[in-house]
């Protein structure tokens, strides 16, 4: 399929696909006339990239998942390098949740004090 069809099927733009390509995540073949040609594997890769970006991964985090798919796995999450990234990302999220919980508790305390001081 050509880049326009891949973009349409993946729900993204051709510009985004070229951006992923520039980062080595998407790999087109070139036809004799120089057009980018993609196979079904690239559609799976783009879906994986978009899903991971949507939950906060950056392009470097995504590399092991793409490599896992390219190795023939049905999911990018099953390879050891992907599991390491998932564990690291989960730890980062846990830290954020703890920070947010501390902020929430402080705000609740300030609100309670403010309400208690009202006449």
Can you walk me through this structure?
- The structure is a single chain.
- The protein is mainly α and 119 residues long.
- The chain has a single domain (3-117), classed as Multidrug-efflux Transporter Regulator, Chain: A, Domain 2 (Orthogonal Bundle), CATH 1.10.1660.10.
- Helix content is 69%, strand content 3%.
- The protein has 5 helices and 2 strands.
- It has helices spanning 3-10, 14-22, 40-54, 59-70, 80-117, and strands at 29-30, 36-37.
- A two-stranded antiparallel ribbon has the order 1-2.
- Helix 3 (40-54) packs antiparallel against helix 4 (59-70).
- It is elongated.
Give the DSSP E fraction (strand runs of 2 or more residues). Answer: under 5%
- Overall pLDDT score: 95
- Estimated helix fraction: 55-70%
Summed up, the domain count is: 1
Q: Please give the alpha-carbon distance between the first and last residues.
A: 71 Å
Largest sheet: 2 strands, antiparallel
Question: Looking at CATH, which topology would you report?
Answer: Multidrug-efflux Transporter Regulator, Chain: A, Domain 2
Number of helices: 5
Work out the number of β strands.
2
In one word, what is the shape? elongated
Helix-and-strand structural type: mainly alpha
Low-confidence stretches: none
* CATH class placement: Mainly Alpha
| Radius of gyration over C-alpha positions, nearest whole angstrom | 21 Å
- Could you state the order of secondary-structure elements as H and E? HHEEHHH
Cross-sheet strand order for the largest sheet: 1-2
Instruction: Assign the CATH architecture.
Output: Orthogonal Bundle
Domain HTH merR-type: 1-68
Pfam families: MerR_1
GO molecular function, one term: DNA-binding transcription factor activity
Keywords: DNA-binding, Transcription, Transcription regulation
């Amino acid at each position: 399929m050509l880049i326009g069809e891949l973009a349409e099927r993946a729900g993204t733009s051709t510009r985004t696909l070229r951006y992923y390509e520039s980062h080595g995540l998407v790999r087109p073949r070139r036809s004799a006339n120089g057009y980018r040609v993609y196979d079904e594997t690239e559609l799976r890769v783009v879906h994986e990239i978009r899903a991971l970006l949507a939950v906060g991964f950056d392009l470097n985090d995504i590399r092991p998942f793409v490599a896992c798919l390219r190795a023939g796995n049905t999911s990018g999450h099953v390879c050891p390098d992907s599991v390491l990234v998932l564990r690291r990302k989960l730890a980062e999220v846990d830290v954020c949740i703890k920070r947010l919980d501390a902020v929430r508790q402080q705000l609740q305390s300030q609100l309670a004090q403010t309400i208690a001081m009202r006449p």
